[in-house]
Specification:
This protein is of the alpha/beta class and about 450 residues long. The chain binds phosphoenolpyruvate and cobalt (II) ion (CO).
């Protein structure tokens, strides 16, 4: 959603016979079984004729900004829901999520003294990988819920049937979300002169409010001081926001993969910054085949079982020319595993001199189930993994260039611990996530403060 950064020219040479649909020749994991091929073809045909959601100019501007993050000139803040839902495409939910991300980025800008690159996990985060293809309840077996892009969460045969019409609905809901975010940003919602616009009604009594207010006041003072000397500073009255989602359902992504008049190559114009999930990152799989041919900046989730021998060929396949800004690696190891799993990967990528942006996702390796049946994460584990990530990068002589978080602006109790020390019993009060547990406002802000403390204390940023 930016027009301010110049596009980076880059060569476009895709080896082999890549097309937007060449992924269909490979094994595609985590795809639904559509029952009616003609119905699917009608939906993807309609999708292919609808306007895209982002532009190639924006996509290339983000790639340029990510190249700067690789050089340590920016810090990436990527966050949002685990799974968006069509029902949550409402004004308060979208604006509250934006408020949390803006408040976190304000804390980061203030503490890191460096521009923050804001990327939402929204406007298209509608498809989810699942550990099983089907679910059985009371002797009845139905397809698993794979996100609103595919089917409905209710446990009925009608809801769980993969429905191609949902591809069109997801495109519309993404467009509605993006339209509202763009209008808010362009209308002045993100103006640094008015951080009070980002206050969330329910957090007035937050234990972290005082520290946050002090930062807001300090930034306001410096802004007024600079503007007294230099006049109004345009860059502070708006910020840029980009979008990202896991590009899991390849029929959807293919239909939104386009050529444009002024840039060479193919762009995924459903989002600025698609990523490959941990379960679909096999070198010879359909997702890697699809991703290698698009010109977007892309990311890959890297879990604890990945070895250097697997990672290096993946980097070669996805970024053969070592293009700046092209490839982000999001490590999601778990608090217990990061200490052993991450260092060999950092060493190998450094040794080979490959250009990547390293980002920490301290959420997905720390998911557990409680005795009362909730999927949760302990804040101490999330904080612990992030804390270690900074230290491990500093020790390896590499740079942690960003974080990837699941969070919401709603008053939820999904992750345990944090400023209010939520426990198992608290999860009953406001557990709303359809899939993974998200950080609430306070837990998110606390992590932003931790990032600042760590980055001042280590050389890893
Ligand atoms: C996710 O980001 O919601 C997700 C499923 O992550 P991962 O692929 O890292 O498990
Ligand atoms: Co998730």
């Amino acid at each position: 959603m930016s027009h301010v950064l110049p596009a980076v020219p880059s060569s476009v040479s895709i080896s082999g016979d890549w097309t937007p649909g060449s992924w269909q020749r490979r094994q595609a994991l985590q795809q639904p079984q559509y029952q009616d091929a003609a119905e699917l073809a009608r939906a993807t045909g309609q999708l292919a004729s609808l306007p895209p959601l982002v532009t190639s100019w924006e996509v290339l501007a983000l790639k340029h900004a990510l190249a700067e993050a690789q050089e340590g000139k920016r810090f990436l803040l990527q966050g949002g829901d685990c799974a968006e839902s069509f029902a949550d495409c409402t004004s308060p939910i979208i604006s509250n999520r934006l408020k949390v991300l803006l408040q976190m980025s304000l804390v980061l800008v203030h503490g890191l003294k460096r521009p923050v690159l804001r990327v939402g996990r929204f406007a298209g985060q509608y498809a989810k990988p699942r550990s099983a293809d089907s679910e059985t309840r009371d002797g009845v077996t139905l397809p698993s819920f794979r996100g609103d892009l595919v089917n409905g969460p209710e446990f009925t045969p009608e809801a769980r049937r993969p429905d191609p019409q949902r591809l069109i609905q997801a495109h519309s809901h993404s467009a509605l979300t993006m339209n509202f975010v763009r209008a808010l940003i362009d209308g002045g919602f993100a103006d640094l002169h008015h951080p009070e616009y980002w206050d969330l009604a329910w957090v007035e009594h937050s234990p972290l409010a005082a520290e946050y207010r002090r930062m807001v006041a300090a930034i306001g003072d410096s802004l007024r001081f600079m503007e007294t000397l230099a006049g109004p500073i345009a860059g502070f009255s708006r910020v840029d926001f980009f979008t990202s989602h896991e590009a899991l359902l390849l029929h959807y992504e293919e239909a939104l993969t386009r050529q444009v008049p002024r840039h060479q190559g193919w762009f995924n114009l459903s989002t600025h910054f698609p990523w490959i999930g941990m379960r679909t990152a096999a070198l010879d799989g359909a997702h890697v085949e699809y991703f290698r041919g698009i010109r977007n900046p892309i990311a890959v989730k890297v879990g604890p079982s990945v070895t250097p021998a697997q990672l290096l060929p993946l980097i070669d396949a996805l970024n053969p020319e070592d293009e700046p800004g092209r490839l982000t690696l999001i490590h999601r190891m778990g608090n217990a595993q990061i200490g052993s799993a991450l260092p060999p990967l950092l060493a190998a990528v450094k040794r080979e001199g490959r250009r990547v942006l390293w980002v920490a996702d301290p959420m997905h390796g720390n998911t557990e189930s409680t005795s009362n049946g909730y999927k949760t994460r302990r804040f101490d584990n999330i904080r612990g993994e992030l804390d270690q990530a900074f230290d491990i990068h500093a020790a390896a002589g590499t740079r942690l260039g960003g974080v990837h978080l699941e969070l919401t602006g709603e008053d939820v109790t999904e992750c345990m611990g944090g400023a209010r020390d939520l426990n198992e019993a608290d999860l009953d009060r406001a557990y709303k996530s359809m899939v993974d547990p998200r950080l609430n406002y306070e837990q998110s802000l606390e992590l932003a403060m931790l990032i600042v403390r760590k980055s001042v204390g280590t050389t890893g940023v």
